[in-house]
Each structure stands twice: as C-alpha cells, then as structure tokens.
Amino acid sequence: MADKQTFRIGIDARLAGQEHAGIGRYSENLIRRLVRFSLDKKGKKVTFVLFFFSPQQARDVLGDFFDHSQLEIVITKIKHYGLREQLLLPKFYKKAKLDLLYVPHWNVPLAYRGKLAITIHDLLWYEQKGLHATTLKPWQYYFKYLAHHKVSQQAVKKALLIFVPTQSVKETVLKYYPFAEDKIIVSKEGIANSYERALQQKIELKTRIKKQLIYTGSLYPHKNLKLVIQSLKKLPKYKLLIACARNIFQDQVQTLIANYKVKKQVIFLGFVPDEKLINLYRESSALVQPSVSEGFGLTGIEAMASHTPVLASDIKVFREIYQDAAIFFDPQKPQSFVEAVEKLEASNRKKIIEQGLKVAKQYSFDQMAQDVWQALLKQL
Questions:
Q1: At 15, which CATH number?
Q2: Residue 4 phi/psi, 5° resolution?
Q3: Whole-angstrom distance, CA of residue 349 vs CA of residue 199
Q4: CB of 311 within 8 A of CB of 340?
Q5: φ, ψ of residue 77 in degrees (nearest 5)
Q6: Contacting residues for 164 by C-beta, under 8 A, at least 6 apart
Q7: Residue 352 and residue 370 share a domain
Q8: Which is the most buried residue in 98, 205, 261, 333, by most CB within 10 A?
C-alpha cells in the first residue's frame, strides 16, 4: 500500500518569480525542478499543491509545467508578511489536506500545525536592525520587527527541516537557535538556465570592455551601495550601472549620489531581463558586491558565469561562495574599494574570468533541488 500512496506536498509559491528578487528566483527554479522529480524511483507518488498569489504568477513561474498532471494550483490573493497571511492562509493549507508543507522562507503562519520544512536564506532581521534599515515610522518598524521575530522563531521551532544556502548562514541560525542543529541542511543555490548557457559559451576577450561597474540587487542599507558611491569621485573615468527592480530606498540612494556629486557617473536601469543583463555584465569592467551582510551572493555567481570579474566585500559568506575568484575589499573603507578597482585594472582579466568560471560551475539548481527533494521524501 505505502508504495502506491499519493502524498500531498504543499509549497508556498507566493514569493516565486523574478519580481521577488533572490527568493523569487530561488523559488521559481526549485519549484520547476521539484515538479520533474514528482515520481521518485521507488514509486512513491507526490502531488504538489502550489499556493500562488495570482493565475498569471503561476503561469509565469511554471511555464510548460502549468498543466502538469501532478500539480494542483491554489490562488490565495494573500500578500506575504501581512496579518491576512497569519489569519487566512492556514485555512487554505488545512483545506488542501497536506502531508507536508514547504515554505521557501520563514513566513509561516503561527497557526499552522502540520508537518513543515522551510528555507532560511539569511537572518538579516537579526543581524541588521534599527531605524537606519527601514523606511517605516519607528512604531511601525518596531511592531514589524517583533512580529517577524516571533514568526521566524516559531517557524524554526516547528520545522522538521531547515534548508540554508551556506555554512555561514547555518552558523548564524545556530547562533540564535542552537537547538536547530540536527534540522539544518546546507544546500547551495544555483544559477538559472540562461546563466548556465552563458557559462558554456566561448567569449572573445577582445570585446571592448567599458569603464563601467555594474551593481545588481536591492538598495537596502546592508547592501552598502554607499561605499561605491563614495568611491566614484576617485574613479572619475568609471560609471556605475544599477540594475534594481524595486524602488524602496531609491530616494536615499539618489540623495547620496547628489551629496557626493557623482550624478553624471550613475545610471539607474530598473529591471533588466537576464539575457540583456548577461550582455551588460560582459561589457562591464566588473560586478560590484559591497554588502556588509548576505546569505549567499547569487548575483556574483551569475556574473562569473557571464565571464565577468567580481569585486566583493571581504565578508565570511563571500569568501565561502566566491573562494579565490573575486577581488575582495574592506566594506568599511572606500579607499579599499578604489584599490580593488585598480588591482582589477592591473590584473590578468582572462585569468580572473577563468577562475570565476570554475567557481560558477560548482553551483547548480538541479543539485540543490535534488537535495531538497530527497530530504522532503524522507519526511513522508
């Protein structure tokens, strides 16, 4: 009987898709691959129940898998992090009669009582706190901080499995939740198909490289874009391209640009699709990763796969992920960043790119999804 039973695994897919930045890309790539693994070698059948915010999101994320026979799509119209998520989402989960719920984040409703697996990408709410890290009013921020703290704490306690992308994140989780050690699985993230194709291509290094640095990601204070903006005065020949789909904190960044009088050197690109972004990477001197705190550093791996050098802040997680393939700088010292750019100019670009390609080949969403899939099956 057991080998013929169909198990129901729910996945909170409301944050899937590129508009939700790193978590969105992670969720989209993981969901598509898990669908492919929905019948394991032992014959244990799994139906995935996917909870999306809208039908269009479901179609965009699933693509050709939208009509897969072992999928059930549930539209919730419930935004993440809100009160409705806490009050209404458990009813959807209960109605779906799940054997296991997987949430690719920590935002699990407090009222959920079933089997649970989660991914913790980082604990920035613990590591980067204070009014400098928000655009909210003080009372709103502290209410939200306490709510997030409570929800994430309960998610860690309830979860049977906790996936993390790096050893560094595992250590951070254990710093706050030492009891969770036996639950944690380090499962490295990967690169999307467009970057896998770029990785395999042979690129002529004679292509003209522009005096431009590119930054991809959000504009939150911990991303430390201020350091790069401060440094531009000493790099007058360089432009900074900022590819960011979100406008939160953009006013603050614009103010920094005005204060340091480098407006002519900075270009905001908004959202840039992968294929165009790969071309921008290839014509740029380097991708810059100035963060003071991260959970992984996916954009750096994507840039390396695109045959582009990476300048990264010298923090533990970047040392773990980028190994010897990046040029590191002190994220607290603008002069250190300027020296990193100068080191790049004096270095053998071909050698840096080759080192980056070797590192990028170590990261695969296929392998990550296999790790998650096998771990989930053991809980059924």
A1: 3.40.50.2000
A2: -105, -5
A3: 16
A4: yes
A5: 55, 30
A6: 119, 120, 121, 170, 173, 184, 185, 186, 187, 295
A7: no
A8: 98
